[in-house]
Amino acid sequence: MKALRFTAAGTLSVDDLEVPRIAADEVLVAARSVGICHSDIELLEGRYIIPFTYPIIPGHEWSGEIVETGAAVTDLAVGDRVVGECVIGDDHFGFSLSGAAAEFFVAKPAWLHRLPDSLSFTDGALVEPFSCGYNALVKAGNVNASDTVVVFGAGPIGLGVTAGAAAMGARTITVEPAAGRAEAARKLGAELVLDPAAAPIADQVAEATGGTGGTVVVEATGRTFVMADALEVAAHRARVVYVGIDVGGSAPAKLGLLQSKELSVRGIAGSPGVWPDTLRFMHRAGIDLADLVTSRFPVDRAAEAIAASRDTAKNIKVHLEFGATR
Q1: Distance (Å, rounded) from C-alpha 107 to C-alpha 80?
Q2: Among the listed residues 209, 261, 193, the one whose alpha carbon sits nearest the alpha carbon of residue 232
Q3: CA-closest candidate to residue 57, choices 18, 99, 88, 21
Q4: What whole-number distance in Å separates Cα of residue 273 and Cα of residue 258?
Q5: Collapsing DSSP states into helix, strand and coil, what is residue 279?
Q6: How high is the pLDDT of residue 252?
Q7: CA distances (Å), origin 291, targets 83, 316, 318, 322
Q8: CA-CA distances (angstroms) from residue 181 to 122, 185, 201, 211, 278?
Q9: How does pLDDT run across 221-263, given as a tens digit for each residue?
Q10: CA 168 vs CA 145, 173, 230, 282, 287: distances in Å
C-alpha cells in the first residue's frame, strides 16, 4: 500500500509499505478522504502540542470503510462507513499514533463512529474539524437565539463554529480578512463578516452590536494578537472559548478585562466526548461543509497537497482522496 510519512522535520515521502495486520480487537480501514490540517504542517515542521517521534503517518481528519474485522469485534462489520476520533486517551491519532494518510490503517472500534447515510466520505473527513468548532460552542454553554456569537477566523474550524452557531439560532458575526473565506462564512450562516483590516475590530464589533459586544466569542485562528482581541470584543459576562492552537507564542493582552467584564474564559483542545452529538447535529441540522474542500489530490501527490494547504489565500481545506468519496 501507499502511505504518506513524515520521516524527519521538514521531510516527507510517499512510501510503499505492507498492509498492516490487525489484532483480534482491531479493524482494518480503507481510507477514503483524509484532510490536511495546519496541525499536520506543525507536525511536519517538528512542532506539536504533545510528544511524538518520526517516522509518523499523519492524518487525523478522515473517513473510511472497514475492510476487515478482528475475531473479537462484534459491533462493526465489513462495509461499514466510519470516521474516527483524534484524541485517544493520552495519544493523538495521526500525531503520537500513526494516522489515516495511507491506503489502509488499523483502528480500535472504540475510536470509531458510523457515518450517517446522509453524509458523504468527503463530509466525513470534515467531521473532525467541525467537531472542534461544535465542541467550542458546547463548552460555551447553551448557545441559542438570544446570543451574538463572534467568531475569529474563517478557516475550517472557524467556519464550523459559524455554521454551528447559525444552526443553533444565534446571530453570528465572523471576523475574516480573506474574501474567499469571508464568502464561505456568509454561505454557512454568518449574518455579518468583518474585515479586521478595515478598522479596529473592537470598534467594528461595538458598532455591529450597539456597543454590547459578543455574548459568545470563539477564537479559532491561534494567532496570539487575535487571542488578545477576543477579550476586547466580549460583552459583559460573555463566554470566551479559545480553540485555535498556538505553540509558545505571546502577545500583549488587557487581562484586566477578565475581571472588569466578569468573563468566563476557557481553552479546549480537540473534541473528545462530543463525536456522537456532532454527527447527530450535522445530520439533523443538514449542515453541508463539502464546499470547504477546495483542492483534492491522490496520495502519490501528497507533497503537492501539503504545498496547496499552505496556500491559505487559495485553499480552505485540502483532501487526499482514496477511491470513491461517496
Answers
A1: 13
A2: 261
A3: 99
A4: 28
A5: helix
A6: 96
A7: 19, 9, 11, 18
A8: 19, 6, 17, 26, 23
A9: 999 999 999 999 999 999 999 999 887 789 999 999 999 999 9
A10: 7, 14, 21, 12, 11
